Amino acid sequence: LLPKQQRINQGYKMWMPSLPLVLLTATHATPSNPATAQFRILPKMTKHEVREYLTKIYDLPVKEVRTQNYLGKRMRIIGKRHIVYAKRPDYKKAFVVFGSELADVGLGGEVPGLQQQRDEDDE
């Protein structure tokens, strides 16, 4: 049997964000369309988890989340003696529409002080 302290600690579980979100594309807001982004997520993630992840961790105003499941590509690898069948893992895409408060998604922005550092290096 485990000591009493270890048995107590086994029952305590803390949720930490170990679910990866990979940004695929993002678009800035226009006068007619809000800012949007596409993420590649794990198949087990739900729309609610994506919304909570973005709002609580990154403090982004999420208006709508749509998801789409994709099957991994099936491949046939032909060798000298055998044919090996393989499959890439399945994945899911999340299409996120942000609220009107977010106009710029931050892609291609200026890093403060970087241009000054480049000018100093050139001299």
Give an account of the 3D structure.
The chain is of the alpha+beta class and 123 residues long. Helix content is 22%, strand content 32%. The protein has three helices and six strands, in the order H-E-E-H-E-E-E-E-H. The protein has helices at residues 4-10, 47-57, 114-122; strands spanning 22-27, 36-41, 62-70, 74-78, 83-87, 91-98. A four-stranded antiparallel sheet has the order 1-2-6-3, with helices on one face. It has a two-stranded antiparallel sheet with strand order 4-5. Strand 4 (74-78) and strand 5 (83-87) form a beta hairpin.
Please give the structural blueprint.
Elements: H1 4-10, E1 22-27, E2 36-41, H2 47-57, E3 62-70, E4 74-78, E5 83-87, E6 91-98, H3 114-122
Antiparallel strand pairs: 1-2, 2-6, 3-6, 4-5
Judged by helices, strands and strand pairing, the structural class is alpha+beta
Separation of the first and last Cα atoms = 70 Å
Q: What sequence of helices (H) and strands (E) makes up the elements?
A: HEEHEEEEH
Shape: extended
Q: How many β-strand runs?
A: 6
Please report the number of helical segments: 3
Instruction: Return the average pLDDT rounded to an integer.
Output: 80
Q: Give me the Rg, rounded.
A: 22 Å
For the biggest sheet, the summary is: 4 strands, antiparallel
Q: Helix amount, in percent? A: 10-25%
Strand content: 25-35%
Strands ordered across the widest β-sheet: 1-2-6-3
Runs in which pLDDT lies below 50 for 5 or more consecutive residues are none
